[in-house]
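I would like you to sit down with the pair of lines that follows and say whether C-alpha coordinates and residues agree.
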Amino acid sequence: MSSAPLNSAPLNPEPATLRVLLVDDEAPARDRLRELLADLGPALPCTVVGEAEHGLAALLRLQEQPADVVLADIRMPRMDGLELASHLGQLPQVPALIFVTAYDHYAVQAFELNAVDYLLKPVRLSRLHAALDKARQRLGTPLPPALGEIGREWRGSGRSHLPTSERQRLLLLPVADILYFRADLKYVVARTAEQEYLLDEALTHLEQEYPERFLRLHRAVLVARDALAGSEKAGEDDEVYAWAILKSLPEKLPVSRRQWPALKALLKQGG
Protein backbone atom coordinates (compact mmCIF):
# COMPACT_ATOMS: atom_id res chain seq x y z
CA MET A 1 0.00 0.00 0.00
CA SER A 2 1.54 3.26 -1.09
CA SER A 3 1.31 6.51 0.78
CA ALA A 4 1.48 10.11 -0.43
CA PRO A 5 4.78 11.95 0.04
CA LEU A 6 5.01 13.91 3.26
CA ASN A 7 5.63 17.17 1.41
CA SER A 8 2.78 16.85 -1.08
CA ALA A 9 0.04 19.50 -0.94
CA PRO A 10 -3.56 18.41 -0.32
CA LEU A 11 -5.72 18.23 -3.41
CA ASN A 12 -8.27 20.70 -2.00
CA PRO A 13 -6.43 23.07 0.34
CA GLU A 14 -8.48 25.19 2.70
CA PRO A 15 -8.62 28.85 1.56
CA ALA A 16 -6.51 31.14 3.71
CA THR A 17 -8.45 33.38 6.07
CA LEU A 18 -8.50 36.98 4.88
CA ARG A 19 -7.74 39.63 7.50
CA VAL A 20 -10.16 42.51 6.93
CA LEU A 21 -10.19 46.08 8.29
CA LEU A 22 -13.52 47.95 8.20
CA VAL A 23 -13.32 51.72 7.69
CA ASP A 24 -16.54 53.77 7.87
CA ASP A 25 -17.61 56.71 10.01
CA GLU A 26 -21.02 55.10 10.59
CA ALA A 27 -21.13 52.23 13.09
CA PRO A 28 -24.26 50.61 11.55
CA ALA A 29 -22.45 50.36 8.21
CA ARG A 30 -19.52 48.59 9.89
CA ASP A 31 -21.92 46.28 11.71
CA ARG A 32 -23.61 45.39 8.43
CA LEU A 33 -20.27 44.47 6.84
CA ARG A 34 -19.39 42.32 9.85
CA GLU A 35 -22.64 40.40 9.42
CA LEU A 36 -22.05 39.88 5.71
CA LEU A 37 -18.48 38.68 6.29
CA ALA A 38 -19.75 36.21 8.88
CA ASP A 39 -22.36 34.95 6.39
CA LEU A 40 -19.66 34.15 3.85
CA GLY A 41 -18.54 31.42 6.21
CA PRO A 42 -16.68 28.45 4.70
CA ALA A 43 -17.02 29.80 1.16
CA LEU A 44 -14.49 32.56 1.87
CA PRO A 45 -13.13 32.63 5.43
CA CYS A 46 -12.59 36.17 6.77
CA THR A 47 -11.74 37.64 10.12
CA VAL A 48 -12.24 41.29 11.04
CA VAL A 49 -8.98 42.50 12.59
CA GLY A 50 -10.26 45.96 13.44
CA GLU A 51 -12.47 48.94 12.69
CA ALA A 52 -11.79 52.63 12.10
CA GLU A 53 -13.99 55.72 11.74
CA HIS A 54 -11.82 57.49 9.14
CA GLY A 55 -8.70 57.05 7.04
CA LEU A 56 -6.27 58.50 9.58
CA ALA A 57 -7.36 56.05 12.26
CA ALA A 58 -7.20 53.23 9.70
CA LEU A 59 -3.56 53.95 8.84
CA LEU A 60 -2.59 54.05 12.50
CA ARG A 61 -4.35 50.73 13.11
CA LEU A 62 -2.76 49.08 10.07
CA GLN A 63 0.69 49.83 11.47
CA GLU A 64 -0.22 47.92 14.61
CA GLN A 65 -2.31 45.19 12.98
CA PRO A 66 -1.74 44.50 9.25
CA ALA A 67 -4.69 43.47 7.11
CA ASP A 68 -5.05 41.72 3.78
CA VAL A 69 -8.08 43.74 2.70
CA VAL A 70 -9.43 47.16 3.62
CA LEU A 71 -13.15 47.82 3.11
CA ALA A 72 -13.39 51.63 3.15
CA ASP A 73 -16.10 54.22 2.70
CA ILE A 74 -15.27 57.27 0.55
CA ARG A 75 -16.91 60.17 2.37
CA MET A 76 -15.44 60.31 5.88
CA PRO A 77 -14.26 63.11 8.21
CA ARG A 78 -10.59 63.93 8.91
CA MET A 79 -9.33 61.70 6.07
CA ASP A 80 -11.56 60.34 3.30
CA GLY A 81 -11.22 57.00 1.56
CA LEU A 82 -9.43 58.32 -1.52
CA GLU A 83 -6.72 59.98 0.56
CA LEU A 84 -6.44 56.79 2.60
CA ALA A 85 -5.79 54.97 -0.69
CA SER A 86 -2.97 57.36 -1.59
CA HIS A 87 -1.16 56.54 1.69
CA LEU A 88 -1.62 52.76 1.79
CA GLY A 89 1.34 52.18 -0.51
CA GLN A 90 3.67 53.60 2.17
CA LEU A 91 2.91 50.72 4.54
CA PRO A 92 5.30 47.74 4.90
CA GLN A 93 2.40 45.40 4.07
CA VAL A 94 0.12 46.96 1.45
CA PRO A 95 -3.46 45.66 1.71
CA ALA A 96 -5.89 45.26 -1.15
CA LEU A 97 -8.50 48.00 -1.16
CA ILE A 98 -12.24 47.78 -1.80
CA PHE A 99 -14.36 50.92 -1.59
CA VAL A 100 -17.83 50.69 -0.10
CA THR A 101 -19.84 53.78 -1.01
CA ALA A 102 -23.32 55.17 -1.48
CA TYR A 103 -22.05 57.53 -4.20
CA ASP A 104 -21.48 56.00 -7.61
CA HIS A 105 -20.51 59.10 -9.62
CA TYR A 106 -16.79 58.93 -8.88
CA ALA A 107 -16.89 55.25 -8.03
CA VAL A 108 -17.65 54.15 -11.57
CA GLN A 109 -15.25 56.62 -13.19
CA ALA A 110 -12.33 56.15 -10.83
CA PHE A 111 -12.43 52.54 -9.83
CA GLU A 112 -13.15 50.98 -13.19
CA LEU A 113 -10.45 53.16 -14.73
CA ASN A 114 -7.94 52.05 -12.12
CA ALA A 115 -9.12 48.44 -11.85
CA VAL A 116 -9.89 48.87 -8.13
CA ASP A 117 -13.08 47.18 -6.98
CA TYR A 118 -15.93 49.01 -5.29
CA LEU A 119 -19.26 48.11 -3.71
CA LEU A 120 -22.36 50.28 -3.71
CA LYS A 121 -24.45 50.48 -0.54
CA PRO A 122 -26.53 48.59 0.39
CA VAL A 123 -23.97 45.85 -0.14
CA ARG A 124 -25.18 42.49 -1.46
CA LEU A 125 -23.56 39.30 -0.17
CA SER A 126 -22.79 37.90 -3.64
CA ARG A 127 -21.14 41.16 -4.70
CA LEU A 128 -19.02 41.28 -1.53
CA HIS A 129 -17.95 37.67 -2.14
CA ALA A 130 -16.86 38.48 -5.70
CA ALA A 131 -14.95 41.59 -4.62
CA LEU A 132 -13.09 39.77 -1.83
CA ASP A 133 -12.24 36.93 -4.20
CA LYS A 134 -10.80 39.46 -6.62
CA ALA A 135 -8.90 41.19 -3.83
CA ARG A 136 -7.39 37.91 -2.66
CA GLN A 137 -5.98 37.30 -6.13
CA ARG A 138 -4.44 40.77 -6.18
CA LEU A 139 -2.72 40.74 -2.79
CA GLY A 140 0.63 42.48 -3.03
CA THR A 141 -0.28 44.44 -6.17
CA PRO A 142 0.55 48.17 -5.88
CA LEU A 143 -2.39 50.54 -5.71
CA PRO A 144 -2.87 52.81 -8.76
CA PRO A 145 -1.17 56.20 -8.20
CA ALA A 146 -3.95 57.97 -10.11
CA LEU A 147 -6.23 57.57 -7.09
CA GLY A 148 -4.58 60.58 -5.48
CA GLU A 149 -5.38 62.78 -8.47
CA ILE A 150 -9.01 61.62 -8.49
CA GLY A 151 -9.24 62.37 -4.78
CA ARG A 152 -8.19 65.99 -5.31
CA GLU A 153 -10.74 66.38 -8.13
CA TRP A 154 -13.48 64.88 -5.99
CA ARG A 155 -12.92 66.86 -2.76
CA GLY A 156 -11.71 70.05 -4.42
CA SER A 157 -8.54 70.30 -2.34
CA GLY A 158 -5.26 68.54 -1.70
CA ARG A 159 -4.42 65.87 0.82
CA SER A 160 -4.99 66.73 4.48
CA HIS A 161 -1.81 64.86 5.49
CA LEU A 162 1.54 64.16 3.85
CA PRO A 163 3.47 60.92 4.45
CA THR A 164 6.92 60.86 5.97
CA SER A 165 8.76 58.34 8.14
CA GLU A 166 10.01 58.41 11.68
CA ARG A 167 11.92 55.53 13.25
CA GLN A 168 10.97 53.36 10.23
CA ARG A 169 7.25 53.98 10.77
CA LEU A 170 4.79 55.85 8.59
CA LEU A 171 4.09 59.28 10.02
CA LEU A 172 1.27 61.45 8.67
CA LEU A 173 2.06 65.15 8.84
CA PRO A 174 -0.99 67.48 8.93
CA VAL A 175 -0.71 70.00 6.11
CA ALA A 176 -2.32 72.59 8.40
CA ASP A 177 0.78 72.44 10.64
CA ILE A 178 3.30 73.13 7.86
CA LEU A 179 4.75 76.65 7.78
CA TYR A 180 6.86 76.22 4.67
CA PHE A 181 8.40 73.74 2.23
CA ARG A 182 12.05 73.96 1.17
CA ALA A 183 13.68 71.96 -1.62
CA ASP A 184 16.70 70.01 -0.37
CA LEU A 185 18.50 67.94 -3.03
CA LYS A 186 16.25 64.96 -3.84
CA TYR A 187 13.79 65.69 -1.02
CA VAL A 188 11.58 68.45 0.30
CA VAL A 189 11.83 69.68 3.88
CA ALA A 190 8.51 70.49 5.57
CA ARG A 191 8.87 72.85 8.52
CA THR A 192 6.37 73.03 11.36
CA ALA A 193 6.63 75.19 14.47
CA GLU A 194 8.35 72.30 16.25
CA GLN A 195 10.66 70.58 13.76
CA GLU A 196 11.57 69.63 10.19
CA TYR A 197 10.46 66.56 8.25
CA LEU A 198 11.82 65.04 5.04
CA LEU A 199 9.21 64.35 2.37
CA ASP A 200 9.54 62.35 -0.83
CA GLU A 201 7.62 65.00 -2.76
CA ALA A 202 8.31 67.49 -5.55
CA LEU A 203 8.00 71.20 -4.78
CA THR A 204 6.23 71.89 -8.06
CA HIS A 205 3.64 69.20 -7.33
CA LEU A 206 3.01 70.62 -3.85
CA GLU A 207 2.56 74.08 -5.36
CA GLN A 208 -0.05 72.69 -7.77
CA GLU A 209 -1.80 70.69 -5.05
CA TYR A 210 -2.13 73.60 -2.60
CA PRO A 211 -2.38 76.81 -4.68
CA GLU A 212 -4.61 78.55 -2.14
CA ARG A 213 -2.59 77.61 0.93
CA PHE A 214 1.06 78.05 -0.10
CA LEU A 215 2.81 80.85 -1.97
CA ARG A 216 5.95 80.47 -4.07
CA LEU A 217 8.73 82.71 -2.68
CA HIS A 218 11.73 81.29 -4.46
CA ARG A 219 12.54 78.39 -6.76
CA ALA A 220 13.32 76.39 -3.61
CA VAL A 221 10.68 77.70 -1.17
CA LEU A 222 6.89 77.60 -0.68
CA VAL A 223 5.42 79.35 2.37
CA ALA A 224 2.03 79.04 4.07
CA ARG A 225 0.20 82.30 3.37
CA ASP A 226 -1.10 82.58 6.94
CA ALA A 227 2.44 82.07 8.35
CA LEU A 228 3.72 85.35 6.89
CA ALA A 229 4.31 88.34 9.16
CA GLY A 230 6.10 90.72 6.79
CA SER A 231 9.18 91.24 4.67
CA GLU A 232 12.39 93.19 4.46
CA LYS A 233 14.61 94.13 1.54
CA ALA A 234 17.87 92.22 1.17
CA GLY A 235 21.27 93.87 1.25
CA GLU A 236 23.28 94.53 -1.86
CA ASP A 237 25.55 91.58 -1.11
CA ASP A 238 22.69 89.11 -0.70
CA GLU A 239 21.89 86.67 -3.52
CA VAL A 240 18.15 87.11 -2.95
CA TYR A 241 15.92 90.12 -3.61
CA ALA A 242 14.11 90.20 -0.24
CA TRP A 243 13.45 88.18 2.91
CA ALA A 244 10.09 86.94 4.16
CA ILE A 245 9.49 87.18 7.91
CA LEU A 246 7.42 84.50 9.64
CA LYS A 247 5.06 84.87 12.59
CA SER A 248 6.24 81.92 14.65
CA LEU A 249 9.86 81.32 13.60
CA PRO A 250 12.91 83.58 13.87
CA GLU A 251 14.35 82.46 10.54
CA LYS A 252 13.75 84.39 7.31
CA LEU A 253 12.95 82.88 3.93
CA PRO A 254 14.49 84.02 0.63
CA VAL A 255 12.32 85.80 -1.92
CA SER A 256 13.37 86.00 -5.57
CA ARG A 257 12.93 89.13 -7.66
CA ARG A 258 10.40 87.28 -9.79
CA GLN A 259 8.22 86.29 -6.81
CA TRP A 260 8.53 89.60 -4.95
CA PRO A 261 5.42 91.25 -6.53
CA ALA A 262 3.15 88.36 -5.44
CA LEU A 263 4.47 88.49 -1.87
CA LYS A 264 4.18 92.27 -1.74
CA ALA A 265 0.57 92.12 -2.95
CA LEU A 266 -0.33 89.44 -0.42
CA LEU A 267 1.17 91.38 2.49
CA LYS A 268 -0.61 94.52 1.37
CA GLN A 269 -3.94 92.67 1.41
CA GLY A 270 -3.23 91.40 4.90
CA GLY A 271 -2.21 94.83 6.14
In short: DSSP finds eight helices and 15 strands in the chain. The first helix runs from residue 27 to 40. The two ends are 95 Å apart (CA to CA). The first strand starts at residue 18 and ends at 23.
